[in-house]
Design brief:
By secondary structure, the protein is α+β, with helices and mostly antiparallel strands. It folds into 2 domains: 193 residues, no CATH class; 58 residues. 45% of the residues lie in helices and 12% in strands. It has a 4-stranded mixed β-sheet. The termini are far apart.
């Protein structure tokens, strides 16, 4: 993939080969030998990818259920800290004639939106589980209409009759809270790792043109993948996540609110108190408030902080 990016001379050629121009610039800038060594060192670091995961995917033969043996994560009942990284959804469906069809999906988490009190990996997993509370028919109808929050192909596969699936963590690293060049690079690393694993795991099942490009990028010596890919879009199509937004976790929110109540002797929340908490958070240089889903989380944590007094 880095060879391909380095061989292209302009963003028009990059677009023909499936790159978003901003992504192509990043790939091209990191296509040199020193940068490649750093990328390999990062991906294979035990702080990012567990030894067990590296052992399983380093085998010469990949059984059909390989991905279901990777590090499982139960987002609904997990004490894992919020992290960015790469995750997967692996599953199997019993088809007519008692045939088993395995499938696998890869995704990355590098966002700041709140879902079930979490950001990052667990937030993304909760998003998928929320979608899978729909019936198979509702998921098919939602995909056909294209209205509302997007429903993905992997949701259709997971919701089939006689199917089972599990989510797993493939790689993870700490969330960079403050908007900075480092935060931007960490987000881009998550996208890069997602793209690498998507190619290696054969997860793409989209257009023949793009599939042909990915087939050429996948090393010939890699084991054969048994199953179908559940990804319909490629990470390298996405725009580079420049800038980013500052984030604050649920635990930080609770500490912030409790501290404010303690220092100011506040026992009742009102509009002025709520506005003052926001302004002080911003002035202290801890980041800036992001309007959107985090608004609900902040209000919930403010209320929780009040109740805990």
């Amino acid at each position: 993939m880095l060879d391909l990016a380095g061989s292209l001379s302009c963003h028009e050629d990059a677009a023909v080969h499936g790159f978003n121009p901003s992504q192509w610039y990043w790939y091209r800038a990191n296509s040199g030998p020193e940068q490649r060594e750093l990328l390999v060192e990062w991906i294979t670091s035990p702080l990012v990818t567990s030894g067990r995961t590296k052992y399983l995917i380093g085998q010469d033969y990949w059984p059909p259920n390989l991905f279901m043996d990777l590090e499982p994560t139960n987002a609904r009942n997990s004490d894992v800290e919020d992290e960015w990284g790469v995750y997967g959804i692996a599953g199997v469906s019993q088809m007519p004639g008692d045939m088993l069809e395995y499938f696998n999906y890869e995704g990355s988490a590098r966002g700041s939106y709140d879902n079930h009190g979490h950001v990052g990996l667990l937030a993304r997993m909760h998003h998928h589980l929320d979608k899978l509370e729909l019936t198979h028919d509702e998921i098919l109808a939602g995909r056909e209409s294209g209205s509302g929050s997007p429903i993905q192909y992997v949701h259709e596969l997971c919701s089939r009759a006689k199917s089972q699936f599990q989510m797993y963590k493939l790689a993870s690293f700490p969330i960079v809270v403050n908007a900075s060049a480092l935060q931007m690079q960490m987000k881009q690393m998550a996208i890069f790792m997602e793209q690498v694993y998507l190619i290696y795991f054969g997860n793409y099942s989209g257009t023949p043109h793009t599939q042909a490009i990915l087939n050429r990028l996948r090393p010939e010596e890699m084991p054969t993948v048994q199953g179908i890919g559940a990804n319909r879009q490629l990470p390298m199509y996405e725009g580079m996540l420049a800038g980013g937004v500052d984030m604050i976790s649920s635990s930080v929110l609770q500490c912030l609110v409790k501290s404010y109540f303690r220092v100011h002797g506040v026992t009742e929340l009102n509009r002025d108190t709520f506005a003052d908490i926001f302004s002080q958070y911003h002035e202290n240089g801890n980041g800036h408030y992001t309007r959107g889903p985090l608004d609900t989380s902040f209000k919930r944590q403010v209320t929780k902080g009040q109740e805990d007094q």
